[in-house]
Design brief:
This protein is mainly α. It has eleven helices and two strands, in the order H-E-E-H-H-H-H-H-H-H-H-H-H. It has a single domain, classed as MetI-like fold (Orthogonal Bundle), CATH 1.10.3720. Strand 1 and strand 2 form a beta hairpin. Helix 1 crosses helix 11, helix 2 packs across helix 8 and helix 3 crosses helix 5. The chain starts with 7 loop residues before the first helix and ends with a helix.
C-alpha cells in the first residue's frame, strides 16, 4: 500500500502553501515598514539640506530663529508624563495582572476596571483635549499651562502602559511564583523582588510607547499647553509651554521658506528623539536581561 505522505503532488502542494504563506507575511511586513520608511526618508531629505545646529540652541523668533524652547518644552512634558502616567499605569497593570485575575474572589470591579481602560484607549485625543480645555483650562481657570497638558497626555497613555505591564507580568513563568511560594516568600515580596524584575523589559517597552505617543501629540496640546517662544519656567499653571509638534503643524502652512525649514527641523528632531528613546530602552532591556541571567546562574 503506497504511503500517502510520499505522494509528490501532496509534497508540492504543501511547499506551495508554505511559500505562499511566507510571501504573504513578507508583503504584510513591507506594508507596515514601507510607510514608516517613506515618512522617515521624506523628513530627513527635507530637513538635512537646510539644517543648522543653531536650531538646537536658539529660541523661535516669529517664523525664524530656532526651536530650543520647543525642545526643552517637549522634554519637560515627556518627563511629566513619565512621572504621572508611568507610576499610575504600572500600578494599574500590576493590579490587573496580579489582583484582578478572572474569577479571583469574585471581584466584579476587576471586569469594570479592565473594560474602562480598554474604552479609554479608544477615545480620540482631540476629545480628551477638548474635555481638558473645558474642565481644566477654562473650568478651573488654570489657563494654558504645563499641568493640564501633562494630565491630558497622561490620561491618553495610561491604558497603553497598564496593558503592556499586565502583558509583561502575565508572561513571567508560573514556576517563578511557585518557587517563591515554596521558599516561604510572601506574595508581595515575591511580586516585588522576582515577578516585576523579570517583567521589566516589557514594562520599559510600554513606557517607551507612552513617551513616543506623548511626544508626537498635537491636538490635545493645542487646547491645554497653548504655545510660547519662552523657555519653561517650572510654573505649573498660567504659563504656556512650547512643544515640537506645534511648528510642524503650524509653520508648514506659512508662505515663508524659513517657516518651512523650521517645520522640517522640528519633525527631524522628533524622529531623532524617538530613536534615542528606542536605543536607551534596548540598552536597559539588555542590561536587565544580562543581570537576570547572571542571577539565575
Amino acid at each position: 500500500m503506497p504511503n500517502r505522505h510520499s505522494d509528490p503532488s501532496r509534497t508540492r502542494g504543501r511547499r506551495f502553501r508554505e511559500q505562499l504563506f511566507r510571501g504573504l507575511t513578507l508583503i504584510a511586513l513591507v506594508l507596515v515598514v514601507g510607510p514608516a520608511a517613506w515618512i522617515l526618508i521624506g523628513v530627513v531629505a527635507r530637513a538635512i539640506p537646510h539644517w543648522q545646529w543653531s536650531v538646537l540652541v536658539t529660541p523661535t523668533s516669529g517664523v525664524g530663529g530656532g526651536l530650543s524652547q520647543d525642545i526643552v518644552g517637549t522634554l519637560v512634558l515627556m518627563l511629566g508624563v513619565l512621572v504621572v502616567a508611568g507610576s499610575l499605569g504600572v500600578l494599574a497593570g500590576i493590579y490587573l495582572s496580579e489582583m484582578a485575575k478572572p474569577r479571583r474572589n469574585g471581584r466584579p470591579g476587576a471586569v469594570l476596571f479592565r473594560s474602562a481602560t480598554e474604552v479609554l484607549s479608544g477615545v480620540p485625543s482631540i476629545t480628551l483635549g477638548f474635555v481638558a480645555y473645558v474642565s481644566l483650562v477654562v473650568g478651573l481657570h488654570w489657563g494654558f499651562s504645563l499641568l493640564p497638558a501633562v494630565l491630558v497626555l497622561s490620561v491618553m497613555v495610561i491604558p497603553y502602559i497598564a496593558k503592556s505591564t499586565e502583558t509583561a507580568l502575565a508572561q513571567v513563568p508560573t514556576s517563578y511564583r511557585d518557587g517563591a511560594e515554596a521558599l516561604g516568600m510572601s506574595p508581595a515580596y515575591s511580586l516585588r523582588k522576582i515577578v516585576i524584575r523579570s517583567a521589566i523589559p516589557g514594562v520599559v517597552t510600554g513606557l517607551l510607547l507612552a513617551l513616543a505617543i506623548a511626544g508626537g501629540e498635537t491636538a490635545p496640546l493645542l487646547l491645554t499647553a497653548g504655545n510660547t517662544s519662552s523657555y519653561p519656567t517650572g510654573q505649573l499653571l498660567h504659563q504656556p509651554i512650547g512643544y515640537l509638534t506645534y511648528p510642524v503643524w503650524t509653520f508648514y502652512n506659512y508662505p515663508s521658506n524659513q517657516a518651512h525649514f523650521l517645520a522640517y527641523d522640528a519633525a527631524l528632531i522628533l524622529v531623532v528623539l524617538v530613536m534615542a528613546l528606542l536605543i536607551v530602552t534596548r540598552m536597559i532591556v539588555a542590561r536587565t536581561q544580562r543581570h537576570s541571567e547572571g542571577g539565575r546562574g
